[in-house]
Amino acid sequence: MYCRVVPLTRTPPGVEVFDYRIPKDLEISSGDLIVVPFRKNPMPALVLSTMQNSPFASKAQDVISRYGDIRFPLSIVEMLSYVASTTFTSKPAVIKAWLRNLPKRLPEASEHSSRKTVKKSKPSVTAFWALDHEAKLVERAKLALAKGERVLVLTPWKARIERLLSAIGQGLPYSSDLNDGDAFRAWSGFYRGETKLLVSTRLGGWLSPLADLVLLDEPENDDYKQDELAPRYDARKIAIWSAEHAGTIVEAHGLTPPLHSDEDAPEIEVDLLVVFRHPQGRGSIPMVQGEALNTLRDHEGPRIIVHPIKGDIARLTCRDCGKTVICPNCDFTLSADKDRAVCRRCGYKGDLSLQCSSCGGYDLGKSLPGIDRLKSAWKKYEDEVDVEWRSVSNADFEKALPENACVLLTDASLIGGGAEDVRRMEKLAVTFRRLARDVHEAKGLLIVQTEEHQAGFWVSILTTDGFKAFRERERATRLTFGYPPAKRLIKVIVETEDEKLLNPIKQLAEIRGPYPIPYRAKSRKSRYIWHILPKTNTVSRELLDALTILSKQALIDLDPIAFLR
User: What is the rounded average pLDDT of the residues 230-246?
Assistant: First the structure.
């Protein structure tokens, strides 16, 4: 007997599986984790199938042993093929991303394994949108755990893991922060049924077939998608696949329905003060209008200022001629962080320029001030008024707001992070509603500084009807320009502008581009983005085959969350 396996190592697409001979004293089946000799070293591997013979029988080496008694259900084997094919990544690279490095010392076999029995049933995927969605998720998890079910909670950010574990009162964390041993103990305990609850980031999506119930926390946030490194999978889609193929119940609990949904967004009633930004209305603190400053001074509870710009100033720009200081590595505009020049794009750090290279001017501070400069000004002019400073990072957003807090958002238009123009308003809506919900729960006051033409947006986006109107406008815009969710879009990233590379696809879909990727480090090759728009919103087998061939020379994303980056 022989077995076909996927080794736990990264390989290029096309280098997928290897055959090994099964010794007579070993019982091996599909889904088993085993140890095989690979390039002269023992290596864990996942068994895809067993066979009576192999075309490589004369060269096949013997399987060394099983890896503990771990035998995954066939649904995980099938899911591995699904993710590899839809991310155009090799199966070994996918399994390596999921399992990372297994302990070299084999775990002892457990006599009391409690593996999930997969029941083929009608797919169950349900979404719930509410102000108290987190409390409802926690309540649902506790109810399932009381019934003895295995529960997997997926959340978009590491910062929420401990918070959810504490609220539920049991379970283990599972994220990339864990060392290899702790990560193995977490997922293997869940596999065996010894651990009934795991709370994980997108890393844990592959465990969905092992769960009886998967709870998606704030599914409207795109951090479920692995968007930079291969494999570019989306944990939300993996959970849905598990519902369809492994009988897992999947529930989404969030605040703001996505654009493709027709469900109502819950209304957020928050004490809101909208302050127009005006040059004549500035106080003694940069970026803080006089009205907002006076409100902060008069507030008798905790005060928090949320400022989206890091460091000292946003960009090094000459006040005399307007020339910006460019990163020597990637041509992005440099920022100031204390006494260093930093690039927010590629991470470059260098000496801070003292003089404009164009006109010789010595004032390179014509830019929005960063949080460090605001702190310095506050200490100088308002030191007797206690203030907590926060950025727009997920870690800061996840900090609980104190009761009766007065929260000042210095520039509402920047809270969406680095979202490109296509999705900018969508990101702003989701993030602002999240902040307003937190202030509402704290029974506090939210002060929003904004340009006058955007004032109505912040007010209306918090209402059910206002969000519905926004969603309809955004959908119409996406339909006009052919962007998701109105139109299926596939992103192809290549190192050439030559359209001939896409000739096999021209008969199957519309092609747009190329769009150069800006701010690439000069040590790296230029890259270009092409957009592939299928004739229908589904990807045909013929188109998928053509894309698979193209993936040998390109990065391909079937469901991108960033269209032009």
Answer: 93
- Asked if residues 532 and 505 have their Cβ atoms less than 8 Å apart, the reply is yes
What is the SS3 assignment for 217?
strand
pLDDT digits (tens, 9 = 90+) for 300-324: 999 999 999 888 888 888 888 888 8
Sequence spans of domains, the chain:
2-99, 124-254, 271-476, 490-557
The angle subtended at Cα 411 by Cα 409 and Cα 415, nearest 5°, is: 80
CATH superfamily of 490-557: Ribosomal protein S10 (3.30.70.600)
Amino acid code (one letter) for 245? H
> Is the peptide bond between 514 and the residue preceding it cis, with omega within 30 degrees of 0?
yes
d(CA 306, CA 390): 5
**Predicted pLDDT at 111:** 44
Pick the more confident residue, 365 or 443.
443
pLDDT tens for each residue of 32-71: 999 999 988 999 999 999 999 999 988 899 999 999 889 9
**Looking at residues 60-86, what average pLDDT do you find?**
93
Asked if 183 and 100 count as a contact pair (C-beta separation under 8 A), the reply is: yes
Q: Are 508 and 532 in contact (CB under 8 A)?
A: no
Structure-token pair, residue 301 = 């509870």
What's the pTM?
0.91
Q: Distance between CA atoms of 243 and 241, rounded to whole angstroms?
A: 5
Using CA atoms of 483, 487, 493, 497 in order, give the dihedral in degrees to the nearest 10: -80
Output the CA–CA distances (angstroms, integers) from residue 561 to 312, 447, 475, 565, in the order listed. 30, 30, 16, 9
- The rounded mean pLDDT for the chain is 90
More confident residue, 368 or 188: 188
How many Cβ atoms are within 10 Å of 539's Cβ, its own excluded? 18
Q: Distance between CA atoms of 59 and 37, rounded to whole angstroms?
A: 12
Residue 330 and residue 350 in contact, taking contact as beta carbons nearer than 8 Å: no
Peptide bond into 518 cis (omega under 30): no
Task: Say what the pLDDT of residue 562 is.
Answer: 87
At residue 425, the pLDDT reads 93
CA-nearest of 200, 198, 205, 135 to 170 is 198
Do 546 and 504 touch, CB atoms closer than 8 A? yes
**Lowest mean pLDDT: which of 36-45, 309-318, 490-499, 537-546?**
309-318
Q: What is the C-alpha separation between 60 and 54, in angstroms, rounded?
A: 8
| C-alpha–C-alpha distance, residues 170 and 172, integer Å | 7
End-to-end CA distance of the chain: 48
Q: What is the CATH number of domain 2-99?
A: 3.40.1440.60
From edge to edge, which strands make up the β-sheet containing 335-337?
335-337, 340-342, 349-351
Provide the pLDDT confidence category of residue 356 given band limits of 50, 70 and 90: confident
DSSP state of 256: S
Q: Please give the class, per CATH, of domain 124-254.
A: alpha beta
- How far is Cα 462 from Cα 433, in angstroms, rounded to an integer? 6
